[in-house]
Write the structure tokens for this entry.
Amino acid sequence: MMKFDYLYQPFSAQRNTVFAKNGMVATSQPLAAQAGLDILKKGGNAIDAAIATAATLTVVEPTSNGIGGDAFALVWTDGKLHGLNASGPSPQSISLDALKAQGYEKMPTYGVNPITVPGVPAAWAELSKRFGKLPLQEVLEPAIQYAEKGFPLTPTLGKYWKIAYNRFKEHLLADEFKPWFATFAPDGRAPEIGEMWRSPDHAATLRSIAQTNGQSFYTGELAQKISDYIQQYGGFLSKEDLVNYKVEWVEPISVNYRGYDVWEIPPNGQGIITLMALNIAKEFQFAGKENVETYHQQIESMKLAFIDGKAFITDPSHMPLKQEELLSEEYGKKRRTLIGSTALEPKPMELATSGTVYLATADGEGNMVSFIQSNYMGFGSGIVIPGTGIAMQNRGHDFSFDEKHPNVLKPGKKSYNTIIPGFLTKDGKAVGPFGIMGGFMQPQGHFQLISNTIDFHLNPQTALDAPRWQWIEGKKILVEPNFPLHIAQALTRKGHEVQIAVDSGGFGRGQVIWRDSESGVLMGGTESRTDGSIASW
């Protein structure tokens, strides 16, 4: 059993770790967590609960994810970890020349052109088919009911909804964006905190997906509506792209960190960056959590891993360095030798913002799921397919226009993807799922959470609540407002350019469920930076 000091609260945790035996669902929205728990109580397993929670999140947290997004999952069942990559490729008809002919010099952020094939509905259907116990129609019913009857906005949701509306109102003026405003601002404004919002079109789409096990989205009426609307405005995604889409079952990748195996989805996801950073850092003997040398070594390890990750991660068939090389002992040692007593100056990288939801589930039978889905950058592309409630992602925004870069745009190619689920095991037994959403903060959040847990024995809730740092570019480090000031000052003396953030909005939102291997007791933590909730029994 993992031993934690539950009385140690150095960062004034706002919540306590939750304990339960029969089942647990942890995510960023209370209604979604409860929806997953309801499915567990109806006889579903952790996989069914994950699908129900994920589907409900598309309704009750549309600022971060949607039916038209991507997903990844790590599923522990029958003593084995399975990986699911449900990200989608670029359209077969897209090309650099075609975009340049439209006047683009880089990948656009909004509109029909950064849309890649969505994988979310296929992920739900595939997980249900392979591991679920209940019919998909029953599992999606809570999400359908919330879409049909409505729900009141929670505080964090209301905040980001209003931010998105104000941004879209100023910049998304073309006709193709009108359905977004009709769906998410039906009264000519963003809904207020506590105000009811409903989307009957969303409900009808979810019902269609449930009744056809996802096929309507890829081969049926929904697929036709998606392709017709995108091509009406000069986009490239076609019905053929949707028809030909298949999710991928992949072998999870891992590194051993101080006796624990830390697992991530392989590229095109960026989870390998977490593993690379842990592989670099694992030979350091940290003097303590609140020690400047600890923070310095962690930041430098992450900085080196991120620089390499951004340089090499893309669709695995296009990577110049394979994952085995990036996770090798030789790689970790070589990069570790560069870390000295002062901050390194790596090649700078401009980071984007995020829009993702994460959830973790566990049942009394030993099944556990780490699941993440995203529309990217909040509401995604700003494109909503009329009459469906489907908000489309903009994952293609991360493609490069540089023909020499591994992540250059090509037809039918998967882009570098920021969303990553994590999982922890020890001696071949499940410890549990973990994840922290938030764009390029995600591998940094994973790294800090794992170190807090393994190096400093922080319990799940305290490990999440601990103030975070975020490497931005060069020597620039952003820290949360409650980050220890004396550490920030000491890092500055080591050459880091430390800035204190005005709030914690950009530092990720995470969830954790650990299982005691002897008693089966579940221990959950949920993010204090959002409307997070744990539903358990």
Observations:
- The mean pLDDT is 94.
- The chain is about 35% helix and 20% strand.
- Residues 292-312 form the longest helix (21 residues).
- The radius of gyration is 22 Å.
